[in-house]
């Protein structure tokens, strides 16, 4: 009886980045669904370290080639290598001699742009990163944004800002606020990563700029950590990174069995958009309603009441209710409940959790009251909603949208 050979494979990624973690997840998914037997090498802290990699006595490598140092270190590799990274506008920029699996940078930007267009916006900007060898994918997203704006005859507005560092943080925020004030409003801003989007969200909060009424913001990565660190839930384009991992593992598996795949290039499109509050721009409203919605969006889950919203806006409760009825067709309390319900469905969609804890986190006075609101607004109980979301995740794990 034949036995399957175990291949020794190194994964060169920085798993502190959401993109790299998702690629690794895709690789693991491929291995769990096939009979391939791999002995995987990763650094104990899941960081990418190159010293000594040329002495790796293994059978194959899958590596993140967005880092030029990785590409250089593996240029003379005698064992099969599959590269993963971003796409390039210029075909000559792709690495030579290795199969390459790329996230489609143009389609990432195009999907974000299409979403903002559909929200009725007509001014657009890109929040990028300072130019650096390790940020080549960021410059490629700039090229994609520029090409889209020129094709649609919009102004090209790109701001790179400063790199993230403790000593320059205050200056970075001040620059972001000045840039935000300089833009025509309302404006749709695409950030090249969720981390950059989170920074800009904070700048909007400090500057008193309403999100998404004045600035509709969308990031790239669908990073759950970035979402947890923003007061207003962040919309994001979901990269097809898990599919990239599965594809890269499949290519390496073929190479380990003698198939030659030099210069194969596969572009993987984004998997969808997680649409949350930060990009849900609506038509211009009365300034009082816009200001109230901005306050509600930030504090709905902290148990605020209509009187507190009216105090923030600076008008009487009855006047604010009248504006809401005229502009939106429902009450201030209904708007508060809407955002609490949105927060609760987002938590329930992500997995098993205690309903009492969900109710408290989302500002409901009790789990019973949350149950009542779910039945009235969604026609199901919170537990039934959670079960349905779990079934949807298993049926289509890569493509989904948030509550619209």
TrEMBL record:
Domain of life from the UniProt record: Bacteria
Q: Can the keyword Membrane be found in this entry's annotation?
A: no
- The residues covered by the HTH araC/xylS-type domain are 290-388
Recorded hits in InterPro entries, A to Z, give: Homeodomain-like_sf, HTH_AraC, LacI/GalR-like_sensor, Peripla_BP_I, XylR_PBP1
Q: Does the keyword DNA-binding apply?
A: yes
Q: Name one Pfam family in it.
A: PBP1_XylR
The UniProt keywords, alphabetically, are: DNA-binding, Transcription, Transcription regulation
What protein is this chain from?
Answer: Helix-turn-helix domain-containing protein
């Amino acid at each position: 009886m034949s036995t399957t050979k175990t291949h020794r494979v190194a994964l060169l990624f920085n798993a502190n980045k959401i993109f790299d973690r998702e690629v690794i997840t895709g690789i693991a998914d491929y291995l769990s669904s096939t009979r391939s037997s791999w002995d995987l090498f990763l650094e104990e802290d899941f960081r990418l370290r190159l010293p000594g990699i040329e002495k790796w006595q293994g059978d194959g490598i899958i590596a993140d080639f967005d880092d030029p140092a990785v590409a250089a270190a593996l240029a003379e590799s005698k064992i099969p290598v599959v590269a993963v990274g971003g796409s390039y506008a210029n075909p000559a920029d792709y690495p030579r001699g290795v199969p390459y699996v790329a996230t489609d940078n143009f389609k990432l930007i195009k999907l974000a742009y299409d979403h903002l267009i559909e929200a009725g916006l007509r001014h657009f900007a890109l929040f990028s990163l300072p130019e650096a060898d390790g940020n080549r994918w960021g410059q490629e997203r700039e090229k994609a944004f520029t090409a889209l704006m020129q094709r649609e005859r919009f102004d090209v507005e790109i701001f790179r800002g400063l790199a993230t560092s403790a000593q320059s943080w205050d200056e970075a925020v001040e620059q972001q606020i000045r840039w935000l004030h300089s833009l025509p409003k309302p404006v749709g801003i695409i950030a090249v990563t969720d981390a950059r989007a989170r920074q800009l969200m904070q700048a909007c909060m400090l500057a008193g700029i309403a999100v998404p009424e004045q600035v509709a913001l969308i990031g790239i990565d669908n990073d759950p950590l970035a979402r947890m660190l923003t007061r207003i839930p962040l919309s994001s384009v979901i990269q097809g990174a898990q599919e990239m991992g599965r594809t890269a593992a499949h290519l390496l598996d073929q190479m380990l069995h003698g198939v030659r795949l030099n210069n194969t290039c596969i572009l993987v499109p984004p998997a969808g958009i997680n649409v949350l509050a930060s990009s849900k721009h609506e038509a211009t409203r009365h300034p009082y309603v816009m200001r109230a919605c901005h306050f509600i969006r930030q504090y709905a889950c902290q148990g605020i009441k209509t009187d507190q919203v009216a105090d923030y806006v600076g008008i009487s409760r009855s006047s604010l209710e009248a504006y809401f009825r005229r502009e939106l067709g429902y009450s201030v309390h209904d708007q508060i409940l809407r955002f609490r319900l949105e927060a609760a469905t987002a938590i329930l969609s992500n997995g098993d959790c205690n309903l009492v804890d969900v109710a408290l986190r989302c500002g409901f006075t009790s789990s019973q009251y949350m149950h009542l609101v779910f039945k009235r607004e969604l026609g199901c109980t919170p537990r039934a909603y959670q079960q349905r979301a779990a079934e949807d995740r298993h049926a289509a794990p890569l493509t989904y949208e948030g509550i619209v």
